[in-house]
UniProtKB/TrEMBL annotation:
The keyword Secreted does not apply. GO terms for cellular component: peroxisome. Pfam families: Aminotran_5. It comes from Haemonchus placei. Its cofactor is pyridoxal 5'-phosphate. Belongs to the class-V pyridoxal-phosphate-dependent aminotransferase family. InterPro entries: Aminotrans_V_dom, Aminotrans_V_PyrdxlP_BS, PyrdxlP-dep_Trfase, PyrdxlP-dep_Trfase_major. This is Aminotran_5 domain-containing protein. The keyword NAD does not apply.
Length: 144
């Protein structure tokens, strides 16, 4: 017998009653997302993994309204800053525009290419209603 037996709490299934989350995050997941998490894991060397990553990138490009190739998954105050014209002003002064959309992407208008944003990052557990742990990020060609 081990000198350190596992606690009883680890020996029984976790029971969490369903609830509706209304705070700033995390948010409730859609059933299709929860179901997908119960599937077998894919390693980065599996051929199917490339397809999953490609689909995720396309979804993020749609979400950010951008066509750039430097879009991938990588976590505010909740203040919404008007961005129209800011990217143009940054470009005139030779600076890059970085935007935190953690609490707004998917719930508020965002147009990376149109507004001249050079880098944007978000989080999955807020308005996107996905599990926490991913931080979508996208870079313009200029930022690379």
């Amino acid at each position: 017998m081990s000198a350190y037996p596992p606690p009883a709490s680890l020996m029984r299934p976790m029971e969490i009653p369903p609830r509706q989350l209304f705070g700033p995050g995390p948010s409730n997941m859609r059933d299709v997302i929860a179901e997908s998490q119960s599937k077998s894991l894919l390693g980065h060397l599996h051929p199917e993994f490339i397809k999953v990553m490609s689909d995720a990138r396309e979804g993020l490009q749609y979400l950010f309204k951008t066509k750039n190739n430097y879009t991938f998954a990588v976590s505010g105050t909740g203040v919404r800053q008007p961005l129209e014209g800011l990217g143009e002003a940054c470009a005139r002064h030779g600076t890059l525009l970085l935007v935190d959309t953690v609490a707004s992407i998917g719930g508020a208008e965002f147009r990376m290419d149109e507004w001249g944003v050079d880098c944007v990052y978000a989080a999955t557990q807020k308005v996107l209603n996905a599990p926490p742990g991913l931080a979508p990020i996208s870079f313009s060609d200029k930022a690379m």
